[in-house]
Amino acid sequence: MNSSSSSVSTTDLNLIQLKLARYFLVPVYILGNFGNFANIALFSQRNIRGNIFCAWYFICLSLANLFVLNTGGLSRILSLLINFNLETTSIIFCKSRNYLIQTGAVIGRYFICLISIERWMVTSTNEMIRRMTSAQIALRLIVIGPCMIALFVIHVPIGFAISNERCFASLNDTYVLFFNIYNMTIITVPVIVITLFSILIFTNVRQSRHRVVPISITGSNVQAIYLTTKSAGQQRDIQFIRLALIQIFTFMLFTIGYGIYNVYDFGTSSIEKSSDRQAIEAFISGIAVNLNYVSVAAPFFSYTLASNKFRKDCIATFHRYGTLFMRCFGE
């Protein structure tokens, strides 16, 4: 009786996963590709890219998101929809897929952290800190950081193997423990970093609003007034602060569930579990993974919904590319 009940439960959960792949994950994949390409087109505009180094971080973040979507997202969709899953039959595919997903995901989180740190530096009242946002430093961080991450994540193809028709960390008990800790770290550390610097950004912005400038009115009379006008550069900085905070919120919203599940999975790894419980946990894990893909697909749409300036820039960019397309291919 219990065996039959477990079988039915597992079948039902697998059916739900299939429907989620078809009606949820496929749209996420398509819209995510469109949105990240749109972000790259927008942030690559000379008036944005040339003046604000943070734009380069947004471009690199979008590239990392595309990498994750088209290595992990696409293969997950194919495995769920048409049962095309080389991960359980090819050891090369098993190792390379997980290595590429992990590398892309960690690089994306690295750039989210850089975005939050750079925006804190720009809003700082300390001139020395503001001067640290230079093109040379940004270029080094863009080149060296991903290379170091790619080298660090090399443990994944070493430790992953196919066992019981599953591709997972199974080299030995020591590596399983290491991978669980690593998996929690690559989520909790970015969350801590971006939370801390978000608070610091809010603090800096609040201080800047109360900053006053003395101006001469008549003779020796000096009056302090609030700054009421901002240069175009300052307005662009404010826009990027808003986009950074939106990106931080989006990341935390859609990845926190996966982090919580990993903590739970690690804490209960030594407990003997029934087949029903294993099926339910596998289902919850699948939901958390799907939400992870939302986190790399959603930025463009969250920026568009929350920022009027971003929407205007999008319209201008699409119009520019549309005009260029018509000139090239129109009659």
UniProtKB/TrEMBL annotation:
Transmembrane segments: 20-43, 55-79, 99-117, 137-161, 181-202, 240-260, 280-303
Primary subcellular site in the record, as a coarse category: membrane
Key word ATP-binding present: no
Domain of life: Eukaryota
SUPFAM superfamilies: Family A G protein-coupled receptor-like
Boundaries of every G-protein coupled receptors family 1 profile domain copy: 35-303
CC terms in the record's Gene Ontology section: membrane
Organism: Rotaria socialis
Keywords assigned: Membrane, Transmembrane, Transmembrane helix
Gene3D superfamilies linked: Rhodopsin 7-helix transmembrane proteins
Subcellular location, record wording: Membrane
Protein name (record): G-protein coupled receptors family 1 profile domain-containing protein
Signal peptide (UniProt feature, chain positions): none
